[in-house]
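Here comes my example:
=====
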Amino acid sequence: MYEDAALVPTREGELARRELAFAASARAAVESVSPWRVAFVEARLGRGRSGRLLMTIAPPEGVTVEAIPPALASQLRALIVPLAPEPWTDAQTTLELAHPVMTSAQREPPTPRSPSLLLALCLVGLGASAGVTLDRLARARAREASPGRGRPLS
Protein backbone atom coordinates (compact mmCIF):
# COMPACT_ATOMS: atom_id res chain seq x y z
CA MET A 1 0.00 0.00 0.00
CA TYR A 2 1.34 3.42 -0.89
CA GLU A 3 1.38 6.19 1.69
CA ASP A 4 2.59 8.84 -0.75
CA ALA A 5 -0.19 10.76 -2.45
CA ALA A 6 1.93 11.37 -5.54
CA LEU A 7 2.30 7.65 -6.26
CA VAL A 8 -1.37 6.75 -6.57
CA PRO A 9 -3.38 9.77 -7.74
CA THR A 10 -6.71 7.94 -8.17
CA ARG A 11 -9.94 7.63 -6.20
CA GLU A 12 -8.87 4.17 -5.09
CA GLY A 13 -5.51 5.57 -4.00
CA GLU A 14 -7.18 8.35 -2.03
CA LEU A 15 -9.47 5.82 -0.36
CA ALA A 16 -6.46 3.64 0.49
CA ARG A 17 -4.63 6.61 2.03
CA ARG A 18 -7.70 7.48 4.12
CA GLU A 19 -7.94 3.85 5.27
CA LEU A 20 -4.27 3.81 6.25
CA ALA A 21 -4.60 7.09 8.13
CA PHE A 22 -7.72 5.88 9.96
CA ALA A 23 -6.05 2.59 10.92
CA ALA A 24 -2.92 4.40 12.16
CA SER A 25 -4.92 6.90 14.22
CA ALA A 26 -7.06 4.12 15.73
CA ARG A 27 -3.92 2.15 16.64
CA ALA A 28 -2.29 5.21 18.22
CA ALA A 29 -5.42 6.09 20.19
CA VAL A 30 -5.84 2.58 21.60
CA GLU A 31 -2.17 2.23 22.50
CA SER A 32 -2.12 5.64 24.20
CA VAL A 33 -5.10 4.86 26.45
CA SER A 34 -4.87 1.14 27.13
CA PRO A 35 -2.07 -1.17 28.31
CA TRP A 36 -3.28 -3.68 25.69
CA ARG A 37 -1.11 -3.90 22.59
CA VAL A 38 -2.47 -3.67 19.06
CA ALA A 39 -1.29 -6.63 16.98
CA PHE A 40 -3.20 -5.88 13.76
CA VAL A 41 -5.47 -3.18 12.33
CA GLU A 42 -7.35 -3.15 9.06
CA ALA A 43 -9.71 -0.38 8.01
CA ARG A 44 -12.17 -0.52 5.13
CA LEU A 45 -14.02 2.66 4.39
CA GLY A 46 -17.17 2.70 2.30
CA ARG A 47 -20.24 4.71 1.63
CA GLY A 48 -22.65 4.99 4.53
CA ARG A 49 -22.47 2.15 7.04
CA SER A 50 -20.50 -0.28 4.91
CA GLY A 51 -17.13 0.64 6.43
CA ARG A 52 -15.42 -1.72 8.88
CA LEU A 53 -12.49 -1.60 11.27
CA LEU A 54 -10.92 -4.85 12.43
CA MET A 55 -8.51 -4.55 15.33
CA THR A 56 -6.72 -7.46 16.95
CA ILE A 57 -5.42 -6.64 20.41
CA ALA A 58 -3.25 -8.53 22.87
CA PRO A 59 -3.30 -8.34 26.65
CA PRO A 60 -0.39 -6.83 28.57
CA GLU A 61 2.62 -9.03 29.28
CA GLY A 62 1.91 -11.71 31.87
CA VAL A 63 -1.90 -11.42 31.64
CA THR A 64 -3.87 -14.39 30.31
CA VAL A 65 -7.48 -13.86 29.29
CA GLU A 66 -10.04 -15.89 27.37
CA ALA A 67 -11.84 -12.86 25.91
CA ILE A 68 -11.65 -9.09 25.78
CA PRO A 69 -13.41 -7.61 28.82
CA PRO A 70 -16.72 -6.03 27.70
CA ALA A 71 -15.98 -2.77 29.53
CA LEU A 72 -12.66 -2.43 27.70
CA ALA A 73 -14.25 -3.29 24.36
CA SER A 74 -16.93 -0.62 24.72
CA GLN A 75 -14.34 1.93 25.87
CA LEU A 76 -12.14 1.24 22.84
CA ARG A 77 -15.08 1.33 20.42
CA ALA A 78 -16.18 4.68 21.87
CA LEU A 79 -12.62 5.95 21.44
CA ILE A 80 -12.50 4.91 17.76
CA VAL A 81 -15.86 6.36 16.63
CA PRO A 82 -14.80 10.06 16.63
CA LEU A 83 -11.62 9.23 14.69
CA ALA A 84 -13.47 7.85 11.66
CA PRO A 85 -13.40 10.08 8.55
CA GLU A 86 -17.05 9.26 7.83
CA PRO A 87 -20.17 8.59 9.92
CA TRP A 88 -19.32 5.62 12.13
CA THR A 89 -21.06 3.45 14.71
CA ASP A 90 -19.79 1.09 17.40
CA ALA A 91 -21.10 -1.89 15.42
CA GLN A 92 -18.67 -1.15 12.59
CA THR A 93 -15.67 -1.78 14.85
CA THR A 94 -14.70 -5.40 15.46
CA LEU A 95 -12.27 -6.18 18.27
CA GLU A 96 -10.60 -9.58 18.44
CA LEU A 97 -8.29 -11.18 20.95
CA ALA A 98 -4.86 -11.84 19.48
CA HIS A 99 -3.61 -15.38 19.22
CA PRO A 100 -0.40 -15.90 21.26
CA VAL A 101 1.59 -16.48 18.04
CA MET A 102 0.72 -12.97 16.85
CA THR A 103 2.05 -11.40 20.02
CA SER A 104 5.34 -13.22 20.27
CA ALA A 105 8.42 -11.08 20.52
CA GLN A 106 9.59 -9.40 17.35
CA ARG A 107 12.51 -11.16 15.75
CA GLU A 108 15.67 -9.28 14.98
CA PRO A 109 16.29 -8.78 11.27
CA PRO A 110 18.97 -11.12 9.95
CA THR A 111 22.46 -9.71 9.96
CA PRO A 112 23.93 -9.30 6.49
CA ARG A 113 26.56 -11.89 5.69
CA SER A 114 29.85 -11.12 4.06
CA PRO A 115 30.16 -12.12 0.40
CA SER A 116 30.77 -15.82 0.10
CA LEU A 117 33.73 -17.57 -1.46
CA LEU A 118 31.52 -18.74 -4.30
CA LEU A 119 30.62 -15.16 -5.18
CA ALA A 120 34.30 -14.17 -5.12
CA LEU A 121 35.20 -17.03 -7.48
CA CYS A 122 32.36 -16.06 -9.84
CA LEU A 123 33.60 -12.48 -9.96
CA VAL A 124 37.19 -13.61 -10.68
CA GLY A 125 35.90 -15.84 -13.51
CA LEU A 126 33.82 -13.00 -14.93
CA GLY A 127 36.83 -10.69 -14.87
CA ALA A 128 39.03 -13.28 -16.58
CA SER A 129 36.50 -13.91 -19.34
CA ALA A 130 36.03 -10.17 -19.87
CA GLY A 131 39.82 -9.78 -20.13
CA VAL A 132 40.09 -12.56 -22.72
CA THR A 133 37.24 -11.05 -24.73
CA LEU A 134 38.80 -7.59 -24.71
CA ASP A 135 42.19 -9.03 -25.71
CA ARG A 136 40.64 -10.88 -28.67
CA LEU A 137 38.81 -7.73 -29.79
CA ALA A 138 42.03 -5.72 -29.63
CA ARG A 139 43.89 -8.35 -31.72
CA ALA A 140 41.08 -8.47 -34.28
CA ARG A 141 41.14 -4.68 -34.68
CA ALA A 142 44.92 -4.67 -35.00
CA ARG A 143 44.69 -7.34 -37.68
CA GLU A 144 42.13 -5.29 -39.62
CA ALA A 145 44.23 -2.13 -39.28
CA SER A 146 47.42 -3.59 -40.79
CA PRO A 147 46.60 -4.57 -44.38
CA GLY A 148 49.54 -6.91 -45.12
CA ARG A 149 49.72 -8.99 -42.02
CA GLY A 150 47.78 -12.12 -41.42
CA ARG A 151 46.70 -12.67 -45.06
CA PRO A 152 47.95 -15.55 -47.14
CA LEU A 153 49.95 -14.72 -50.24
CA SER A 154 48.32 -15.59 -53.50
User: Anything to note?
Assistant: The two ends are 74 Å apart (CA to CA). The chain is about 40% helix and 15% strand.
